[in-house]
Amino acid sequence: MRSKIYANLLHNRKTGNCTKWNKAVTTLSMTQYQSDLLRLLNNRGYIHQITDANALDSLAAKSIIPGYIGFDVTADSLHVGNLVQIMMLRRLQQAGHKPIVLMGGATTKIGDPSGKDEMRKILDDDGIASNFAKIRGCFENFLTFGDGPTDAIMVNNDDWLGELEYIPFLRDIGRHFTINRMLAFDSVKLRLEREQPLTFLEFNYMILQAYDFLELSRQYGCKLQMGGSDQWGNIVNGIELSRRIDGAELYGVTTPLITKADGSKMGKSVDGAIWLNADRLAPYDYWQFWRNTDDRDVGRFMRLFTDIDLDEIKRLEALEGSEINEAKKVLADAATTMAHGQSAAEDAARTAQQTFEQGATGGDLPTFEVSEEEISILDALVGIGFCASKGEAKRLVAGGGAKIDDVPVGDIGEMINLSAGERKISAGKKKHGLLRKV
């Protein structure tokens, strides 16, 4: 019976949502959870869907639950778009449970088709290994790793997926998945509706992810998978597979899609991804991203992305007028401290104060070192990373958005003299940097 319910839910859901199931989740989330885990997740706004809220709540109240989230290693850093999932693992640990960080060393070779219109570039083994090593540092700033019962661990699904033999896998695992059900998944259906090619390789992703949950349940006693709302179907697949093969009772929790108040996707800016690794994005720019939060998002982002006390958040989000800017600084300080450490956050805040409030040039600003005594405004804007091309730089100058030492540049052919050693360059109101003669 339960299998039939799950199948119906998957068939009827739209972009990760099912009205019938969401009503159940809404009703449950308004009750008083008995476990610290679900109370914490609910009070901070992480819960979108739960496969069996009552059973999970009861289990979490009386035992340590190992829970996991998977991350494919397609780049050498995670970004703010991944942060709500990292924070979910942090909340799991804060509530006295065990986080499992699953790195997709094998599934990265395939690519999750969810939300994609085309096949993702496939990395070779060396590229995956390099990304794996660099990404690990992201998690070490948010989780405590070790050998204790609630210490986080990091595992690689290539350890078991890489050992699979094709025919036995099809026979033992593939028989539990019907083509009818797989075609009903949004990750597949939307690609087909848009007439975008979906390779057989990508089509297998959902089976491999389900197998991950089965393997983690067997090896580590993992009872919970968490993820974004677009992973709901994949999570349910893993629960059903483990129930059918091992008779295991597993659970799933998804988070809502995190967007900003203006409707744009969380984790993106006009300049691209907001990376978590300092070598991809300077802590100052990370701090500025949070400082520029829309007034309407301040309280929600504090709940999701910081450990600030809920009563204090309630006070800060109620500030009005110019006072809300102080709340944004608190958000930026807390988020940057978590990702990069207190010293980096303090340096970023100090640089921002010097740049925006005192009119000086802070030492933590991005810097472009030049060997010549003169450089064109276009080369300077591209060299420091404020513009992706000279064409973009020309449009910025033509629109009055480029400044040298706070003076607007009106000529796209203007040359900047660096004989004095250092000049301040700005693009718009929020991007500032230094040009330095070396």
Entry summary:
This protein is an alpha/beta fold and 438 residues long. The chain has helices at residues 2-12, 19-29, 36-43, 53-62, 83-94, 125-140, 158-161, 166-172, 179-183, 186-193, 200-203, 205-220, 232-246, 283-291, 298-305, 310-317, 324-340, 342-357, 377-383, 390-398, and strands spanning 49-50, 66-72, 98-104, 153-156, 224-228, 251-255, 268-269, 272-273, 367-370, 374-376, 402-404, 407-408, 415-417, 422-427, 431-437.
- What is the total number of structural domains? 3
What is the CA-CA span between the terminal residues? 73 Å
Shape: globular
Structural class estimated from helices and strands: alpha/beta
Strand content: 5-15%
Query: How many separate helices?
Result: 20
Any idea what the CATH architecture of the largest domain is?
A: 3-Layer(aba) Sandwich
Q: Give me the Rg, rounded.
A: 24 Å
User: What assembly state would you assign to the polypeptide chains in this entry?
Assistant: single chain
Average pLDDT confidence is 83
In CATH, the topology of the largest domain is named Rossmann fold
Low-confidence stretches: 1-30, 115-119
Helix content: 40-55%
Name the CATH class of the largest domain: Alpha Beta
CATH superfamily descriptor of the largest domain: HUPs
Summarize the helices and strands and which ones pair or pack.
Layout: H1 2-12, H2 19-29, H3 36-43, E1 49-50, H4 53-62, E2 66-72, H5 83-94, E3 98-104, H6 125-140, E4 153-156, H7 158-161, H8 166-172, H9 179-183, H10 186-193, H11 200-203, H12 205-220, E5 224-228, H13 232-246, E6 251-255, E7 268-269, E8 272-273, H14 283-291, H15 298-305, H16 310-317, H17 324-340, H18 342-357, E9 367-370, E10 374-376, H19 377-383, H20 390-398, E11 402-404, E12 407-408, E13 415-417, E14 422-427, E15 431-437
Parallel strand pairs: 2-3, 2-5, 3-4, 5-6, 9-15
Antiparallel strand pairs: 1-6, 7-8, 10-13, 11-12, 11-14, 14-15
